[in-house]
């Protein structure tokens, strides 16, 4: 019996390549966009039933070929898209939705405030309309839009993600401009923070949100602060408002803690995608911008210096140029990067 060990060749396995960085945006000529009116009020709103789901929406008139649908973030509403929808109205009619329990939308009968529940509601709403849309989402709304685009690609012509709420539990000192806003999202221990926020008057709450969400809070106009304060006051009169905000926030964080990941979802998106991030985002770390864009196969990335978490509110003009540039390039078949 031979004691010589036999040699079995092991195939060479090359090291996996890192994700390819996403190319930059394609910007539309600013002359093709209408001038922005800084004093414009919210677009008209109404309840709309589609796909068995009732949502309050704000409609922006415009060309109906491929309409745009705008999805707000946690504790936001359809009014978060007033300026951007106006700038894009010459290219597409717009529908800014209030997610169930937010803005003026009543909650679903199921009271399902999980990210999947919100995505189901939006998906049914879009499917009921029966045609593809340009889908835009900010923060939590970006995560919802990402899920919808991955699950039903035939409904989404293009996707725009403004600081989407990608999972991130690492501490970030920039998030502490008002710790109560962050603690309020946590189960159990956030109860006291939520109570403190609810006790603040509407104007103070509007200023707190601006300090956290804007890269430069000083540019927030008195007109928009007054609008936000009035909206906070109106929501205080809605029986379901606090429940919707608390349960949605806790469900989002609980999903992160359970290891539910949007990264695999992002890899399944087929639509041309624009990822927009502010370099001063205090809520979703800017370090996730390149990773997010790399995770979505057909994406481009716009990073805005000096801008925070709600770029569509703080810097609507460059965001509009990038979104319009994507729409134009997709229509012309020139979105894909050469080579």
Automatic annotation (TrEMBL):
Domain annotation AB hydrolase-1: ranges: 69-322
UniProt-annotated stretches for the region Disordered: 1-44
GO molecular function: catalytic activity
Record-linked InterPro entries: AB_hydrolase_1, AB_hydrolase_fold, AB_hydrolase_sf
Entries under Pfam families matching the protein: Abhydrolase_6
Annotated PANTHER family: MONOACYLGLYCEROL LIPASE
Protein's UniProt name: Pimeloyl-ACP methyl ester carboxylesterase
């Amino acid at each position: 019996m031979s004691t010589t060990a036999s040699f079995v060749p092991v195939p060479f396995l090359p090291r996996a390549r890192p994700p390819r960085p996403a190319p930059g945006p394609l910007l539309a000529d600013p002359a093709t966009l209408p001038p922005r009116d800084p004093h414009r009020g919210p677009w008209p709103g109404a309840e709309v039933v589609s796909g068995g789901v009732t949502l309050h929406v704000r409609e922006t008139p415009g060309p109906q070929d491929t309409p745009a649908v705008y999805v707000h973030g946690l504790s936001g509403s359809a009014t978060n898209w007033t300026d951007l929808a106006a700038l894009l109205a010459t290219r597409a009619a717009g529908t800014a939705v209030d997610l169930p329990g937010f803005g003026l939308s009543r909650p679903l009968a199921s009271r399902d405030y999980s990210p999947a529940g919100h995505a189901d509601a939006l998906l049914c709403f879009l499917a009921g309309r029966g045609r593809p849309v340009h889908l835009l989402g900010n923060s939590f709304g970006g995560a919802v839009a990402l899920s919808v685009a991955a699950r039903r690609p035939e409904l989404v012509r293009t996707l725009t993600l403004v600081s989407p709420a990608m999972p991130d539990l690492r501490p970030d000192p920039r998030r502490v401009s008002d710790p109560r806003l962050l603690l309020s999202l946590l189960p159990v221990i956030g109860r006291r923070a939520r109570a403190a926020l609810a006790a603040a008057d509407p104007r103070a709450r509007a200023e707190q949100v601006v300090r956290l969400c804007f890269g430069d809070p000083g540019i927030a106009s008195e007109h928009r602060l007054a609008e936000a304060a009035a909206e906070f006051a109106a929501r205080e009169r809605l029986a379901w408002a606090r429940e919707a905000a608390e349960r949605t926030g806790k469900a989002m964080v609980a999903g992160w803690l359970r290891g539910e990941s949007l990264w695999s979802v992002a890899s399944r998106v087929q639509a041309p995608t624009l990822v927009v991030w502010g370099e001063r985002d205090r809520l979703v770390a800017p370090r996730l911008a390149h990773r997010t864009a790399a995770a979505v196969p057909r994406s481009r990335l716009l990073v805005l210096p000096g801008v925070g978490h709600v770029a569509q509110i703080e810097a609507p003009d460059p965001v509009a140029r990038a979104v319009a540039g994507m729409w134009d390039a997709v229509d012309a078949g020139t979105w894909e990067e050469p080579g």
